[in-house]
Amino acid sequence: MEFFLVQALNGISYGLLLFMLSSGLTLVFSLMGVLNFAHASFYMLGAYFAYQVSVKIGFWPALVLAPVLVGAVGMLVERWGLRKVHRFGHVAELLFTFGLAYLIEEAVHLVWGRLAVESPVPPELDGPLFHIMGSQYPIYRGFMMLVSVAMLVSIWLALTRTRIGLVIQASLTHPQTVEALGHNVPRVFMLVFGGGAALAGLAGVIGGNAFVTEPGMAAAVGPIIFVIVVVGGMGSLAGAFIASLLIGCMQTFAVSLDWSLGGITIAQAAPVLPYLLMVLMLILRPRGLMGTRDG
Amino acid sequence: MRQVIELRDVHKSFGTTKIIHGVNLAIGAGERHAIIGPNGAGKSTLYNLISGRFPLSAGQVLLNGEDITGLKPHEINRRGLSRSFQVTNIFHNLSVYENIRCGVLWSAGCGYSFWHRVGGLAEVRRRAEQTMERIGLARRRDVLAGTLTYAEQRALEIGITIAGGASVVLLDEPTAGMSRTETAQAIELVRQVTEGKTLVMVEHDMGVVFGLADRISVLVYGEVIATGTPEEIRANPAVQEAYLGALHKETAHA
Amino acid sequence: MRYQPLNLGRWVLWSATAIVFVVAPLMFTESFALTLLIQMGTMIIFALSYNMLLGQGGMLSFGHAVYSGLGAYITVHALNLVGKGAFYIPVPLLPLVGGLAGLVFGVLFGYVTTRRAGTTFAMISLGIGEMVYACVLMFPGFFGGEAGISTNRVVGQPYLGLSFGPAIQVYYLVALWCFVCIAAMFALTQTPLGRMANAVRDNPERAEFVGYNTQHVRFLQLALSAFFAGVAGGLSCINFEIVSAENVSAIRSGGVLLATFIGGVPFFFGPILGAVVFIFFVVALSGFTKAWLLYLGLFFLVMVLYAPGGIASLLLMQIPVIRARRFGELAAPYVAAFAAALLALAGLIGIVEMVYRLSEQGARTELALLGFAFDARDLAPWIAFGAILAAGLAALRRATRWLGARWSSIQQDLLARQP
Lengths: 295, 254, 419
Fold this sequence. Notes:
The complex is a heterotrimer of chains A (295), B (254) and C (419). With 295 residues, chain A is mainly alpha-helical.
């Protein structure tokens, strides 16, 4: 029982982290039609920036500074790169972000090396938060959940209570109309792209400490976010939320189960499960859980 | 007369908005049938329902007596119904000849063949060249469709539609956005290329409609309020009230 | 009658290609060149098969290595079984085994991926790629885990006096398959399916309304493309005599995308150029610097931004100018732009290499570039290379403006001359 509870909490905290990533990806995709292949790379940059700032100043400034820096990088990318390829269409934009992901990974290799960097959890967040029937639950996991929920609530407020938020929200369901209303201003795009990058950066700050900060982290989590967006339905925030929690829990439970099936334990099969889920979803319900738009 | 297209109590709503409610329509073989109506009456939606672009909310569509409700666009096309689009819908990065050939390939029985050389299919080439002659684009054979003039693209749009030799042709405002002379040429083209076929046409230009159509249906707010010969429609008080009146208002405003 | 000269041109082109394939290894004496050529041949098939998706079918795939990789795995097992004497297939026909394996997996996975088009297809192809990669690591019994499965291509009695031990024999095997596959893939573009693939790429909706199921078109195109990818995989298995998880990895899938795009997606022969340049980058440049992937990525980004038609389009753009005998006017700005680009590149290389030396633990921080010795810990080289980079970029800007002005004036003249 306590095993189940702790695993469920771990699964939810991981799922929330995934949603921090997939929500940014979905927002950018919905507003700009751009599938940002480099989204997970911004996550990685967030983790590395946080590491660098933590080493110099400390964790708490890093929590603010790193996402801001990543957001700035995102805006620069939009202004000096993405906007130029926009006229060549969505495939060109996707290719551009693909190349960018490639470049960021190599840049990280060059600057921080190929091995993982030490990014320990800050001392004030180290230790158990509470004990459930003998097993302890770390403070940092609770902190992760707190940050993700706080972020999600502020996004929700920003989306529903501010003017620009309303524009973004309208473009979730009626992109053409919003475009026709003259809201397709480059500045909104730049802000949204930078904002999406900053969200990924924030996820990187807390994810980097919780897991590991290494050059492979973008490539490891990137495809999972894509799966979440496909399973949830392209452009659907609610779908992305459900799929994030689903895959977060599925992954967490799977790695701790050693039931065997034909010589393969569930734990061994864990990396394949999200993709199997995606394939199943595509066969049974091609537009995804909450998807409304086709291809 | 044999019914080629038959709509039985067709309904369509988008969300809670009802666009088409209860359309019944029968179009006979070889007929030139025009559908007119004010903006937003649901003419294009009706086309999209007949050609399988949108699913129906309720009702039935029959083609040559066969139920085609719920079939995919390509399945309906294979049964001999071909349509054009109001907003030019061509293959922009292919040449004029290739555009037309795309319209020919399926009906020539080529299917998904990857074992025939398309240049060696004499029948395909003959039909594509013939269609190009008919729409007057033979001289522009190797030009990319995206670089044609607007009027040429409209002609190409019709060319792709008729290239497959479909017996039922649905044209959606073939003269949209054209000047007077261009319209006259386009209508002459429509008249020629649909000789011996069943033609359904959405058109705004009343002169065109009354000159070309054998019968006319008037669609207002998702309902057919009258169907008949041009004379009958002209004399129909309900039409005058609901449609021509609205049109007069429109022109008065403009 | 007007097709006569075109056909003649085609014969000349194909014969020239064949002659290049035959003569290429004779021009170089180093064995290094031969390795390079063999890999180029394999990559050409792979990139062309990729372009059947991206260029001809409008399908951006991030998981094409699945088909070449699984083709390679099946080939390596077939080769090992032949070695054990379980059955007999002559080595030259083994790539066909890889191709058929690719086809089978293409049919299997294509059924799922081609249900969607556009961006979603791209995401799904990535997912399938990751799934296969994870599976390969999950079943070490068949796939040999990280280390992979090794083999020996010299099996049984020499076939027509060919043992395929020496690299030169492997080269001619690859060259023959490469030539046949280029011809076959070109022929496929001239079939009803090939033409409709283009139509579906341009305007899937209209293709539906001329009687084609776009999903079927995409599916068939992908299955056929997977066949050729499998052939490429089979050839790489024979060449390297080892197949590992890396063969199906996202790195390979990304690589073939880079190669194809750099070469030129809109043109049939584009990927051939791309494969040659890409292998040159991978094999030749990786020997010089550890930052070669960064340079490759930058090159790719520059192409996406400024030359979306790839090298092929840059070359083809010159033809009308050369025909009009106006190329001479462009020579000077071209040389200037090239020089400026080189200068900027030198500055960039200096900075990148210094960053790398500083971050790598235990690496020597003293380096020498173009005969200049310096230490990355000093400030002076940073300023120097920064200045070189800035000067290069500024010069490049001016040169491209100059080039652009001349170019557009020539284009206007050419347009005016047309009827």
